[in-house]
Write a structure and sequence with these properties.
4 strands, two-stranded antiparallel ribbon, 186 residues, 42% helix, alpha+beta
Length: 186
């Protein structure tokens, strides 16, 4: 029995033009990011390196599959299914639940699709808008941890302090994304 679709199919006659066709560029960018990583395979057993090596031969077919998923507004359930692995933290007793860090391994093809979607969202927000907040550093191209730290430093040592105002700054990490939180006090 086949699993139900991730998103119920709907009549998309009016908005078919809103989703651009998948391009080789989308896939190449996503595969390039896979090359840089050496991650464990998900439930399908295919490591990222296998996708990198096969991308030239499978590129057009994979591009067609990802385009079809975008057109239908579906993210296959199988790509969302993970394999839970518990990694032991050093220096903790083995019989303690806090001695283990849970990690969920996902199929690399699902990660490729996520990267295609994330790249399209970022391009849309930067080009069409609404753009992301100026002080947001996660989910932004050409923004790094160093940029966030420099921003905090500027807020805590610059004109705000010279004017007698105080400043509260904080940097947090959520889902591998760095976020800056700042509040200037007058």
């Amino acid at each position: 029995m086949a699993p139900p679709p991730a998103v119920p199919e709907a009549d998309h006659q009016d908005d078919d033009d809103d989703i651009p066709e998948g391009t080789g560029v989308d896939l190449r960018v996503a595969v390039r990011r896979l090359k840089a990583r050496n991650t464990a395979p998900g439930p399908d057993g295919l490591p990222g390196k296998a996708w990198v090596l096969a991308s030239e031969a499978l590129g057009p077919r994979l591009e067609g599959l990802l385009s079809a998923c975008l057109e239908r507004g579906q993210f296959p359930l199988r790509w969302k299914t993970g394999k839970l692995v518990l990694i032991r933290k050093p220096g903790r007793p083995a019989d303690s639940p806090s001695a283990y860090r849970p990690v969920v391994l996902l199929d690399e093809v699902g990660k490729l699709f996520e990267r295609v979607i994330a790249n399209r969202l970022a391009e849309h927000l930067a080009g069409t808008g609404p753009d992301l907040a100026e002080h947001q550093f996660g989910f932004r191209k050409r923004r790094s941890t160093v940029d966030a730290i420099m921003r905090v430093r500027a807020l805590t040592t610059g004109d705000a302090v010279a004017r007698g105002g105080g400043c509260f700054g904080g940097v947090s990490r959520h889902r591998q994304r760095l976020q800056l939180h700042a509040l200037e006090l007058h």
